[in-house]
Amino acid sequence: MKQVKCPNCGATFDVIETASFSTCPYCGYTFNIQTLQEWTHYFFPVYFNQNSAWLKLRSFILRRYGVPHDFYESSNINNITLHYVPLHIFHAEAEATCQHKKSSATYHKVLDLTVPAYSGFWFDSILRSHKFSVRGKTFFKPSILEKGKYYPPSISSESAKNLSQSIITSLVLREANESCRGYSQVSKVDVNYIGLVHYPIWEFYYSYKNESFKGLIDGTNGRVMFVEYPLSREAKTFLLVSSVAIVTASSLGGMLIGLVLVGNAILGFCLGLVGSLASSAPLLLTAFSLKERGSEEISKKDSLLSAVEWASLVEKFIGFRTNVPITFDL
């Protein structure tokens, strides 16, 4: 930790060593620690309070397959924390041209990018796929420091801007290359910093029959980001029986097909067994797992860049390996 002095009210307070920005807990003034210049600072209000967030989480769990019938009566909150996660917000625009023979085409990409300015949560990888909104923010108020756990940014806006430029460039080039067979190049990149925003995330720890589970709720829109929940014994038995039935049917079917087509029942049995094990693997894993997981997040196929691409860009422009998540508001 290190001590800084607020250039607005003169109060001194402690911040983490890697912090590049800070908000005075006494007057709410946000500034760059090195230059002492004021920084545009926003936050998102909590539209889902503790009770409504817990009701949303339990309602989501109760709609999942195999949840015990007594879950509602037997589940209890052990601990709940409101995290204010810092994000750098950018408005990014890029243009690429593609030349193919005598014709050319121009492609545009316009996005609002949010680059988390802090890493170290157990849910960093979950944040990576979360779709943060940049609409509906309001100017920061010191009173929120008393309502939740506040995290000062540890990643500079300059590093986040370089990362955003690389992201928007990669996306517009990908669109051009996928749509045009010719030579593509970026002709314009414009990334403007909007400001720093703190976003509310509810973290729950709850218990069901002496077992502990956890979950995350977006405090602004109420989306279930992640949740663990129990499966009933009946559900696990059904999944296990279904898996065994799939493996048995596929193996016998493969044996008959192999015998008829190539005269080799053993080969057909082996191929059927391998295929059935692959198809029933999700059911078997769920049946033997102690906790099932769910969320309302977008699927991986809807993500704009893969996890490998994110990691490569972050390592290049932030300067270290991390699980810093980057998401978009489309």
Structure, described:
The chain is an alpha+beta fold and 330 residues long. The protein folds into 3 domains: 1-39, no CATH class; 47-230 and 301-329, no CATH class; 234-288. It has helices at residues 50-62, 71-74, 124-127, 157-179, 233-261, 265-288, 307-317, and strands at 2-5, 12-15, 21-23, 30-32, 41-43, 75-100, 103-116, 138-139, 149-150, 183-208, 211-218, 224-229, 292-294, 327-329. The strands form 3 sheets. Strands 5, 6, 7, 8, 9, 10, 11, 12, 13 and 14 form a 10-stranded mixed β-sheet that branches. A hairpin with a 2-residue loop joins β6 and β7 (103-116). α4 crosses α7 and α5 (233-261) runs antiparallel to α6. It is flat. The two termini are 37 Å apart. 30% of the residues are buried.
The structural domain count equals: 3
State the separation between the terminal residues, measured CA to CA.
37 Å
Radius of gyration: 25 Å
Tally of helical runs: 7
| Topology as a string of helices (H) and strands (E) | EEEEEHHEEHEEHEEEHHEHE
Average residue pLDDT: 82
Q: What best-fitting shape do the alpha-carbon axes yield? A: flat
Which structural class fits the helix and strand makeup? Answer: alpha+beta
Helicity, as a percent range? 25-40%
**Total number of strands:** 14
Please state roughly what percent of the residues sit in beta strands, choosing from under 5%, 5-15%, 15-25%, 25-35%, 35-45% or over 45%.
Answer: 25-35%
Give the biggest beta sheet: 10 strands, mixed
Residue runs with pLDDT of under 50 for 5 or more positions:
320-330
